[in-house]
Specification:
Elements lengths: L1 E13 L5 E7 L3 E7 L8 H5 L5 E8 L4 E10 L8 H17 L7 H16 L4 H15 L18 E5 L4 E4 H7 L8 E3 L4 H10 L12 H19 L13
Parallel strand pairs: 3-5
Antiparallel strand pairs: 1-2, 1-4, 2-3, 4-5, 6-7, 6-8
Helix pairs in contact: 2-3, 2-4, 3-4, 4-7
């Protein structure tokens, strides 16, 4: 059957004969792999719609086993991202991260909207791209159902003396529970939370990404939070390395 959906191309794989396989994050069907014969050269509506970081509407032929993109049209191009190498790399990084956290054929409308908001905010931003990427990842964790617990101790439920963030336990831990955990938890996965991590994560989770366009963490806090979130994602989602991460430029 013929259908249409809004979407963003996460990546494409060239095949012999000019054909491509697109990994498409679609609003209607979630992440799908779709073949297409659309030529990437030229300036047709369909060609422009397949460019990186472009929010488009796709006409798709769908059968029981596969999808094929017949045509596409740009909704929003976010063209300024492609004019700045740092923005380009942070957009690539988030697309790769998004590709890794979503499953095939599972709708994720909240995450889809979050990705559109991220690209829109990144296009307007002039600095601190890492802060915006961290905000996206933290909110994406919440949509994936594995956001860190920051309101109470993940072990006993106490709301006092919450001074430690423990990756393995999935969030904040009180002093008493930390002493019990230390014999069983690798200390490299335990972080002092007194530098403001709880407040930062809480602020990010409590506000739409559109409201975080101007959020800029100081260098020390940003680097510590980046390390914690990277290790948290590695431990809980088994995403340990993203190819685009080595090319990030602040």
């Amino acid at each position: 059957m013929y259908t249409d959906t809004e979407g963003i191309v996460l990546k494409n794989v060239k095949l012999p004969g000019g054909r491509k396989i697109l990994v498409l994050f679609s609003l209607k069907y979630g992440k799908i792999s779709a073949g297409t014969n659309i030529n990437e050269k030229g300036r047709s509506k369909s060609t422009l719609a397949l460019r990186p970081f472009t929010y488009s509407k796709f006409e798709i032929y769908k059968n029981r086993e596969s999808y094929n993109v017949n045509s596409a049209e740009v909704i929003k191009s976010f063209y300024k991202i492609g004019e700045d190498v740092s923005k380009y790399m942070y957009a690539s990084y988030i697309l790769e991260f998004t590709d890794r956290i979503i499953s095939e054929n599972e709708r994720a409308p909240q995450l889809f909207d979050l990705l559109i908001d991220y690209l829109s905010a990144l296009e307007k931003r002039n600095k601190k791209y890492a802060t915006l990427a961290l905000a996206y990842q933290i909110k994406a964790l919440a949509y994936a159902g594995c956001a860190p617990e920051i309101k109470k101790c993940v072990c006993c439920g106490d709301s006092g003396n919450l001074n430690w963030f423990v990756i393995k336990e999935g969030g904040i831990v009180c002093e008493n529970c930390l002493n019990k955990l230390k014999t069983n938890v690798n200390e490299s996965l335990i972080y002092d939370a007194n530098f403001g991590i709880i407040e930062v994560i809480d602020y990010i989770l409590s506000h739409p990404l559109k409201k975080l366009e101007n959020l800029a963490l100081n260098e020390k806090t940003q680097e510590k939070l980046k390390l914690i979130i990277r290790n948290y994602i590695a431990y809980h989602l088994d995403i340990r390395e993203l190819k685009s991460e080595s090319f990030l430029i602040e």
